[in-house]
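## retry 2 of 3
previous attempt timed out at serialization; input unchanged, resubmitting
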Amino acid sequence: MADEYQEKTEQPTPKRLQEAREKGNVPKSTEVNSALVLLGGVGLIYLSGGFIYHKLILIFKGIFNGGYMINLTDDNILFYLFRGLRIIGLPTFLFMVGIMVIAVAASVMQVGFLLTPQPLIPKGERLNPFKGIKKVLFSARTIEESVKNLVKLTIVLTIAYLAMKGYQNVFPLLVDQEVSQIGEFMVKGALTITFKIGLALAFIAGGDYAFQRYEHTKNLKMTKQEIKEETKQTEGDPKIKSRIRAMQLEMSRRRMMQEVPKADVVITNPTHYAVALKYEPGKMVSPKVIAKGKNRIALKIREIAEQHGVPVMEDPPLARALYQVVQIGEEVPEKFFQAVAEVLAYVYKIKNKNVM
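## retry succeeded, writing output
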């Protein structure tokens, strides 16, 4: 079946996710940024309210103490301009820096540290106005955003209405209050309402972020064929790997067969197993297995041994046990010492007779 007709049922691989991340395709909710910036802004105003209030009082005092009668000339206009910027500009600058830090932190919380120019690279499909209009008017994303914005607007209006309704008995009492008290009440009320709205938007942001992650994973799902193709690219074609392993195994067998003529004895099953042993007194604690095999390879080992005059001893239990327990290049374990020693003693006895 062609790949384009296969259903994407497989979860995206780490490689697929990393490639998407490098292109800037990451799960991110703008609602999280909006909610955190709103709550962070309320917190900054609450913490720095006294400082800002003090600066505003200085400005109003300057105005009402005759500041409005100042004659602005070329000589003093810059002085008053920089004075005003110094008074109100510093808290404004600090507030904007705080908001910027919160916005960056909100993005880092969602996607980590990510700097990629991919989203900024112009693409032909983005320059097509018809595709853009179609995407804006008829896409599921547009419907989703419209529903989300309608829910947000409903929540904001509901919270504002309930808050204002809670203050309806307080408003008549403000008539007898001083201007500073009225201003303080209005600021606190606005911050309280804004904070409640921010909390509501934070809940919406949490749900939206979970949905964005779900959509991101869904859009990156892969077909089984895509999984196979990616595996081939990252790990190599299984057929080629199998061929390489077969070649390596064949080379290993050839090297092993070259060691058979150096053996002192070959212990056989007689046809199912064959184990070639070599012992060098003073260099080895016990005899070493230099070749082993079963079935066809066992017959080959026996054939080479007979061609080079290496003694072949039939001992099925010992041959089977050595084949299963001892690897090529390893020395015989202690539990086989007696059985192997008897075989070697018999072999050396035969060799000495032949020499004599």
